[in-house]
Amino acid sequence: MAGRETPLYRRGKYWLGWDERRDGTRRSPFLTTFWYDPAAGRVRSASTGTASEDEAILALDRRYLADSSEAPAFCGACGQPLAQAAAYLLTDAIADYRLEWGDARASGDTIEARLKHVQDFLDAEEARGAEGRFGIATSCAAACTSTFVTAFRAWSHRQPVVWRNGVGQITVTKPRSPASTEAAIAQVIAVLNHAANADPPRSDKRPTYRPLPPKQVQRTRRTRIGIEELARMVAYAAEPDKRRGALHAFMVASICTIARPGAVVDICVAPDRGQWASGSPTIDLNPAGRVQNKKARPVLPVLPLLDQWLSAELLAYQALAEEDRVGRGFLVNYYGRPVQSVDSAWAAMLRELQLPTGREWRPYVLRHSLATLVRNRGAEAWDLEGFMGHRLPSQTEVYARGDFLSVQRALQTIIDEIERLVPGTLHRTGTGAASPLKRKRGAEMPG
Fold first, then answer.
1. 74 — pLDDT class (breaks 50, 70, 90)
2. What does DSSP assign to residue 62?
3. Which runs of E-coded beta strand occur in 287-436?
4. Per the record, which residues fall in region Disordered (predicted)?
5. Per-residue pLDDT tens over the stretch 364-398
6. Predicted local distance difference test score (pLDDT) of residue 80
7. Looking at residue 433, what is its pLDDT?
8. Helices (H) and strands (E) in the chain, counts
9. How far is CA 445 from CA 79, 257, 272, 274, 337, in A?
């Protein structure tokens, strides 16, 4: 019978559970949303269509938000919505934010992890009983106060960051950085502001605090790798018959673009992505449909080496049947399938080459190192800022895109030097130069 056990989740009049018969057997393999219907005088139910608790919670949240009787209260005299932060739970605000905004973002996984950390704090406070100042009943009004953020910071700093294997066992643990805590605080601020900005508003309060600035909580990355280390890495990735194609492509694309790892694995030649077409002198690191954020992805000139790799990937893509092209065309791929990161292959490379394996040696070291090498080889500061996406283009540059010639020249000297140290390893086949790596003249400006 529905409602005999503690609900898995509750929101307003709705609760989540399994639809069970009196003997305990389940009527459905899917989780069910229940609610009491006063007009009918009985409990009603609707299948969520899933056995996954997380997906079922989202289904219940959608039903709740679509229910006009569960909407914010309205003034009987003027009809205006009465947003009440004291009556709107932080857990509900988090659920609504993820449903209406966060889960649709490219950074949805990161947003989910940060908000999971906040919910872990609420659970920990709840477990303290009378000693806890916050918990699952914490309202948005309480979450907007400096008392809340002070308590969260103190708790968060004591919580290690953990990694789990496929069966949920903790395999790696390390102390939590202040930057990680402040990132979670920034996400809470976004949740609370989303509640206040909703139409109609769900909260009448906004946070009284801000996250600490990055300069106060982020460690300065000091590790850089030189040309010799780069050459060793490229040679390792290009070694034939080792199934390191994704790592090889990642290395080459990083050298040619100095892009962030996430942007590198996102490079795709599929036409619907709108990033690059055969013969185009430029590549847009921001694919069609992706909203630019503060980590801007610029439009860059295509160096000759990158042009060879993109052209080869486009030929492979075009050789596929139309029905097989969906999700293909990514430059960094594992037997045609896109990859989210090369972290595992990167870690294996560091071990094999007997290089350090600490935090500062993760794939991001390529971007820092290449930026340093390029700067020391004469790249102009203005060119380097634009090339790396640290400076958003002005309205003038929207029409007259820069060539970043000083960066192109510096990168080409790096490519030439790697080619001299480990000949042929920069090429896609790893069997030597298919065509000479000649310098292009300045990339043509698109019309």
1. low
2. H
3. 299-301, 333-334, 337-338
4. 196-218, 426-447
5. 999 999 999 999 999 998 899 989 987 665 544 54
6. 55
7. 39
8. 16, 10
9. 56, 17, 22, 17, 33
Determine the residue type at 377: R
This model's pTM is above 0.70: no
User: How far is 223 from 41, CA to CA, in rounded Å?
Assistant: 68
Determine whether 182 is exposed, middle or buried from the number of CB atoms within 10 Å of its CB (0-12, 13-18, 19+).
buried
Angle (CA) 274 262 246, round 5°: 90
276 near 269, Cβ under 8 Å? yes
| Radius of gyration from C-alpha coordinates of the chain | 27
Contact 153, 174 (CB under 8 A): no
Q: What is the DSSP letter of 99?
A: H
CATH number of this structure's domain 227-421: 1.10.443
Tokens representing residue 210 in the block: 């801000």
Relative orientation angle of helices 90-100 and 53-66, to the nearest 10 degrees:
90
Tokens of 384: 């380097």
DSSP state of 20: B
- For residue 355, with 0-12 CB atoms within 10 Å meaning exposed, 13-18 middle and 19 or more buried, which class applies? middle
DSSP 10: E
Domain with CATH 1.10.443 in the chain: 227-421
H or E segment and range at residue 44? strand 42-47
User: Could you tell me which of 311, 304, 297, 306 has the C-alpha nearest to residue 266?
Assistant: 297
Give, in order, the Cα–Cα distances in Å from 348 to each of 262, 283, 355.
Answer: 19, 30, 10
Give Cα 253 to chain centroid, integer Å.
Answer: 20
Region 319-340 average pLDDT: 94
Report whether pLDDT(75) > 70: no
Cβ atoms 177, 219 nearer than 8 A = yes
* Residue 160 reports pLDDT greater than 80: yes
* CA atoms of 259 and 243, how far apart (whole Å): 24
Name the average pLDDT for the chain: 86
